């Protein structure tokens, strides 16, 4: 244990729903025992319906835990007043803001509401916080736009700016990368990672982006309905096999070496691939997608593909039944293979 | 957390000035229309004479003085109270329900108030028409205002209970309309047992009118509206928080339950008292908030509450002037005029929404 004290502590926590009648429905048959440390970016991963959002909402005080305790700093969450809580925890939720003509600056300024008086007047210090939040999230260039004029990526960054302006040690984000395109997803993730590092805040987010979580998170919380919660640094979880186990399914498999998921394709045909570097990597990806089992050692009878690179130009040699075909891109490579050596015996007549 | 000044983000201070200019404009407009409402009508009174009467000077033409002080001044004041109250009530409801089509008349609040009024008349054993309310004294005025307030808050509570279960805006609107219909039919049943003369009076009352509220009634109405407006204005910051939705508002430390109760209190006070004395006046409560938001280009309640209040007053006074068709002795039903002005605004809101949702 490090000497720094945790920002949030989850003790023997059980989450779920308390229906009006009958037994409480726990989403989880194990209790959760975790800590959030300063400067940590934690990704909460797990299959749909396992209770990621419920855990997040429980931590935000929007939902009551079924049992157990949550400490924010040294105080129990249920002992915190609403106004104190607002200075400890800020949230970015999935729900859309129901208001149209709200300028970005005013929206971010609402993050300062826990610090302002009855009337909500902003002090120079409040304005400074707002501007810091706008600059940190690169949203300052459209501060006077109204939120209905923003793209999804811009809106998400503005909501993060609002949470930042609230100046809380803990920020909770529910699927901040959902509905964003890849560059925006990466940018939001990078932004959050940088914020955790530079501000010393603890940031907890739920996500479905396994790749991004593996790359960007300092720690992963893996939620599984049966085994309970497993946590640790992404690399440890990969090496121990916990990550693979959490997401094992018949549809795809996790490749520990590359750290990515591969789609299973039935009826694998063996193929040998030779070459080096980037050209080989992408050729292998294409072949695997098509359902070939890629080997690097030559064995008798298997088709052989070699990747060459000369003057920044790639060429592929395909040795099939003692014939050599030369192609200049992966598309024609796959086409050539497809006609003589299909990976999947989709037609009943073929052998 | 230090930023050099040259990196400072512009807060668009120009828009704040422009917004304050709009509000001042609404205020000046309502002042002008107030004067217009005094001068125009079946009898045209010169402005110099009118100002002398208002200044407390006796003028030679006793008829003009009587018309001004006994008819037109109370009427104009009632229009001021009704316009401000209904607009601010509608604004608060639209924010609380996160529904652009919410308003006192749409969600059955005014219907609830009329039911309250009807029940008081029945309970007192006085099967006289609601229209005879115009001859009430001070105690009865309070009783009437109280009953209208109770009826309005009852409906408001029902709608709020439904809203906490059903998130769908359209469903909520339909429920509101139905609750309104139920209360109206209860009044209709009571009407069935009344005599034709009273029914005629009741029908006149449903047309809505700012006339005939004088003396003690005017004081009661004015006090109720003033208290309601002040309460609404004080809730500007919590209402702003609600713009983000309830969950964000809670995460900012807002007690959502308390603010709901507060808004119910305000809306019932404002819409209830106005409906009790003036009859159900439609469309002002739904249309004025939208116009205000669009003109000020803001959702900040610290600006749009005073904005909607003054714009509502101006529009209500304009409606009253139009209803009396200056230069003629005709008086058109107030509800017809407010609907003529309000309906296009509602259509515009729906069209705008559709474009946004695509």
Automatic annotation (TrEMBL), chain A:
GO terms for cellular component: plasma membrane. GO terms for biological process: iron ion transport. It comes from the Bacteria. Keywords: ATP-binding, Cell membrane, Ion transport, Iron, Iron transport, Membrane, Nucleotide-binding, Transport. It is a peripheral membrane protein. SMART domains: AAA. InterPro entries: AAA+_ATPase (IPR003593), ABC_transporter-like_ATP-bd (IPR003439), P-loop_NTPase (IPR027417), Siderophore_ABC-ATPase (IPR051535). Residues 10-250 form the ABC transporter domain. GO terms for molecular function: ATP binding; ATP hydrolysis activity. It is found in: Cell membrane. Pfam families: ABC_tran (PF00005). Signal peptide: none annotated. SUPFAM superfamilies: P-loop containing nucleoside triphosphate hydrolases (SSF52540). This is ABC transporter ATP-binding protein.
UniProtKB/TrEMBL annotation, chain B:
It is found in: Cell membrane. The keyword Membrane applies. Its main location: membrane. The keyword Transmembrane helix applies. One of its GO terms (cellular component) is plasma membrane. CDD domains: TM_ABC_iron-siderophores_like. InterPro entries: ABC_BtuC-like, ABC_transptr_permease_BtuC. Keywords: Cell membrane, Membrane, Transmembrane, Transmembrane helix, Transport. It is a multi-pass membrane protein. GO terms for molecular function: transmembrane transporter activity. One of its GO terms (biological process) is siderophore-iron import into cell. The chain crosses the membrane at residues 20-40, 76-97, 109-131, 143-166, 172-193, 218-239, 259-291, 303-324, 330-351. Belongs to the binding-protein-dependent transport system permease family. FecCD subfamily. This is Iron ABC transporter permease. The lineage of its organism: Bacteria, Pseudomonadati, Bacteroidota, Cytophagia, Cytophagales.
